[in-house]
Amino acid sequence: MASFLYRVGRFSFTRRWIVLIIWLVVLAAAGGGALASGMKMTEAITIPGTESANAQEILEDRFGEAASGVGAGTAGSAGSGTVVDQPASARVIVEAPEGTSLIDDGGLAVVLGTLAPVTEAADVASISDPTTAGTISPDGAAVYVDVQFTVPADDVPAATLDALTAAQDQLEADGYTTVLSGGPFTEPLELLSPTEALGVVIALLVLLVTFGSLLAAGMPILTALLGVGTGLAGVLAFSAVVTISSATLTLALMLGLAVGIDYALFLLSRHRQQLAEGVDPAESAGRAVGTAGSAIVFAGLTVVVALCGLAVTGVPFLAVMGFAAAATVATAVLIAVTLLPALMGFAGTRLVPRGRAAARAQRSTQAENRWGTLITRHPVWTLVAGVLALGIIAIPATSMRMGLPDAGQEPATSNERQAYDLLAENFGPGINGPLVVLVDAADNPAGLMEASAAVSEALAGVENIAYVAPAAPNGAVGGMLGPDTPAPAGTPEADAALVVVLPTTGPNDAETADVVHDIRDLRTEIEEATGTQIWVTGAAAANIDITQKLSDALPLFLAIVVGLALVLLLVAFRSILVPLTAVLGFLLTVAAAFGATTAVYQWGWLSDIFQVATPAPLLSFMPVLLVGVLFGLAMDYQVFLVSRMREDFVHGAAPLVAVRSGYAHGARVVLAAALIMIAVFSSFVFSGNTTIGPIAFAMGFGVAVDALVVRMTMIPAVMALLGRSAWWLPRWLDRLVPNVDIEGTSLERGATPVESEPARP
Fold first, then answer.
1. DSSP per position, 184-244
2. Where is 68: in which H helix or E strand?
3. Where do the structural domains in the chain lie, given as residue ranges?
4. What's the whole-model pTM score?
5. I need a surface site. Which of 101, 273, 284, 620 has the fewest CB within 10 A?
6. pLDDT tens digit sequence for 122-147
7. What is the CATH number of domain 435-537?
8. In Å, how far are 202, 296, 677 from 636, measured between CA atoms?
């Protein structure tokens, strides 16, 4: 490994123009693929095979366009996986002036009259009638009207949107409170905003302090941005054939930026240290890629394995997120070991540390670090303090609840949040997460109405249900479409009916989950008596099904990812105990990250600081995602720090000396890398996105805990306690494990025959 990467590093250094041109061509090709794909994304989250997803498919099959939006409410993006090309819809919510009624004071006529011109606007298919649809609040104080378009949200003409906003302005001028939400009025996610740019600026400042050189500080930023651009463009190129969500892109951006800067930092630090020792620039680039680059490849491979492991959950959108982020991380690794040495070639001797940077490099060669000496002198007390501190932080995780974000967690100024609050105030919290009970009588159409009546009667006795709508069949029942409406000739006989149910609580409340379970518990008796099938769907039910599916997948995912990572670490360190201690430290890290995230986003601690609009259950896919991502990142620091300890040990240093010298050589760079990653993740915490914010917080906090407490404090203490046994490996296993030489011992023996050559400007 080290010898191969040495040759890669030297080639990239000496053939820098070729390497640079290749990467620019790759970037252009990825960008062209992204443009050709149309770059379409969706916010829908679905898991095939769950009851709610199966019911949604049946609903759409039996009811067609009439099923569009049924049960959607504002309960987030869970559902049937809405395709981005399908026609959009929007909702107009109007509240009468205080003390008046839309029914008694003629307000409904004013509202409908003001909206009438919208029906003539381009690409408007229909506007619902609130009197027949039953969308007037019980006290007549508010009404909502659904506007169905014939085109997707991005294709709704500007003139049509102007007609809707003009109607809103007119109603507000008349004293009505009006909100437009959904479809083209949903505020788009910004992948790059000033907060993310601030994270890059902070990373640049950390690099500037670390290197003492603007040229050296700018190189990791440049390579990371190029890697992220290439990775994201590549992901978008597949959006024509794979469903890509904005959360997928944001995760790939966040991880690609963080690891891209970190990997370049580790490699460039080794290169500059060798330059300070008088090594020729070309030889130094080869050695840096052969040693630090080996650690980068293994660290990156661990991250990639952890991210690709998300596919074992059986959840398509998580698998796509994992593969997209893994591709971006892999791109960052390739750029670090090829493009960065090429840039080193362009910089030449200008990267040699000077002034204070040279003094720091000299101190680094002396392998002295006061903190490392202190914790290895008192390892037991260090471990006890670390375990207690992380255990206390993890306590809130015992009450952690899972769910999916809804509009109630959006900022108070957003259209979706205003619509959520207005509907909840006038129609009850359940309006934002209606449940749909589907009666499927395909095998017994004659039993449809009997089953529907039994369902309605059973629902009336379920606790925490505010309203049960009359059953709506999908065709004629006994030749009639209603009590007094004969069915036109050719109308098909109904074989399904749906009953919309409004809980008394919101979509993410525990009581709503209880309602779903209670309804499902009642259906066996109804199905046996009527010969029909009963399904429960709707966004709130989908949230519950998705949460349960992800919770069930977590143990298997954790076992597979940790198992594969243990194998990789075993190969990297040729040790049994080092991988085990690395994994145990990670478990402490992830518990503390769960605890802190629960305290902030579910309990509401420090909510003003972290811009938590409404405390709510944590994202249902966050535990799986956090375990995968954080495990890979934690192993980054393990590899970078402990590989230097092993490097010194295999070169003849005593175990304790190797621990302290390896720590002294790597601690400063690991600290800088952690600060950079924390800065990048923190910038996404304040992006205003309710999906990415909690994930970024958990990752940022997890990195801080893992790097500062576990890897830089507890792991050196453990290594000091273990002594020589830390590197123990049974002989039979030693013969089986391949020697990949990430420490570069072959380079020290002069195994690389390439002659040094002067740096070319």
1. GGSPPP-SS-HHHHHHHHHHHHHHHHHHS-HHHHHHHHHHHHHHHHHHHHHHHHTTTTS--
2. none
3. 2-37+190-406+544-748, 435-537
4. 0.81
5. 101
6. 988 888 888 887 788 888 889 999 88
7. 3.30.70
8. 21, 8, 12
